[in-house]
Amino acid sequence: MKDVIDIYDCVAYRATNSELAQAILALPDESVTRRSHFFHGRYENLYVDIEQLPGLKSILEIALEKSAQILEVPVDNLKFGFWLNIMRQGDVTTLHSHDDDDELLSAVYYIQVPAHSGVFKLHVDREIREIEPVAGRFMFFDPSLPHEVSEHHNAQPRISIGINVGPIDR
Question: Which of 33, 44, 107, 163 is deepest in the core (most CB within 10 A)?
């Protein structure tokens, strides 16, 4: 990866984000197939079937295409995993990294970002890079880099998709 973080604004999907946000917030509890990372009274990661959310598949396909460009490998050599992150007022995302398995690249896509909804903090060496989230934006980064999100201060939820990209097992 040339840069520590690669930002891509997906302007065409900003209109889709509103519908996607509504669908995510309306998901019944039983449609969440798995929850993980229980910190500060909430599960940071919510896993759902991609078919449950119209528009999600095309966003994830763009993530895979951009990942292939960044990694300079054919897109058909890559696979992805994803989860939803819904931050409500007072929530934080704790410091963590994504280098548990075969991840080559991590990303976040912002669906809904109200004002004062926390800052993405990427820890690079001894420096913390703070990046304001923007709805319709992808941020791609090295999965080994620790990162966190500061406190969400808005009554409206912040919604994002976490993505890990790795090699297809052949």
Answer: 107
Which residue range(s) make up the domain with 100?
8-167
The DSSP secondary-structure symbol of 5 reads E
Distances (CA, A) of 106 to 14, 69, 103: 21, 14, 7
pLDDT tens for each residue of 9-65: 887 776 789 889 998 898 888 887 777 777 777 777 777 888 888 788 889 999 999
CA dihedral 111, 116, 120, 121 (to 10 degrees): 180
Question: To which residue do tokens 């890559």 refer?
Answer: 78
Residue 90 lies in a domain: yes
Total of domains in the chain: 1
Write the CATH number for 98: 2.60.120.620
Using an 8 Å Cβ cutoff, are 70 and 105 in contact?
yes
Cα-based distances in Å from 49 to 34, 89, 123, 126, 150: 10, 26, 31, 38, 28
In a domain, 72, yes or no: yes
- The verdict on residue 1 lying in a domain is no
| Torsion 140-40-115-46 (CA) sign | positive
How many other CB atoms sit within 10 Å of the CB of residue 60? Answer: 18
